[in-house]
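Subject: Sanity check before I submit

Could someone independently write out the structure tokens for this chain? I want to compare against mine line by line before I put it in a report. The sequence has 347 residues.
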Amino acid sequence: MIGLTNIVNAFAGKRVVVIGDLIADRFIYGEISRVSREAPVLILKHERTETVPGGAANCACNLAALGAHVSIFGVVGTDEAGASLLAKLDAANIDTGGVVWASDFTTTTKMRVLAGSAHSTKQQMIRVDYEDAHLSNSNHDSPHNSQIVRALERIKPDSSHDSSHNPPHNVAALIISDYNYGVANEAVISAARDIKRLYGTIAVVDSRYRLNDFTGFTAATPNEAEVEELCGNRFDNEADLANAGADLRRRLACDSLLITRGSHGMMLFENDDALTRIAAVGGREAVDVTGAGDTVIAAFTLALAAEASPRDAAHIANHAGGLVVMKRGTATVALSELLDALTHSSL
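---
Independent answer below. Compare away.
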């Protein structure tokens, strides 16, 4: 494990750009007090409400918790959820200069109600999503997408410099975190692809429904269900998934493809057609998988930026994912936690 801990120790100070859909994850906690007289429903006595960064914002927070210097690009509304989200990002020392604050946009908010008795663990009862209309599509650039593209252009070195030697502003890696709310339209994808192509910047993608649109990046980190949806097929066995994963990596023209499989671990596909199966770490049942993919892509990308092989990066991401699913709600993994897990691993 000495090699992996050395890689993680090199995370500190790496500059990473995150582009994607910023989501406010709101958790309402309460105690079930009685049954309503108005209808056969439980009455929740409110205890507290917490708002934490979700989506691309959670990815950024995980990067920051692992020691990276992070800049984030996305859109929030001029509403309470947007203000709360930006305050959380600022508190995590994340550069929010690339975030568009739009008066005609409602901040995407996922509200989860967690309830239980006075002395029991709170369980999620319902989730309510607040979503704006889709920000854009591939045939139309909203003013907000155009602002993001211009902001990305500004992180590139000017033409008087030799761009072959230094990536923009010493950016070690770029992540696109696409939850299909419209930030990562074709113009934004193209700008990110240009940064990767022109400056050799590591660029990793996680896309909920549109991974086929993200060709030519360094790596992608879909989960098994997303691969099944892309392929239009449910895999009955591991061999079928392996064949689909190898084919998907070739279609995406990426160096590596990391498929996360929950309790079944991970599959890593590389450009020499090598397949690595990685068992899930830990023997306990997951407490909460909310945002686990954000933690995985953050750790995987930082490891690649620290010059790890895709295989070592996948093992590090596997440990980070194993830690975060043992936490309740949208959570992050600290650098010290990851180092401790790797130090005590039997791998």
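---
OP: Matches mine. For the report I'm noting this point. The longest strand covers residues 22-35.
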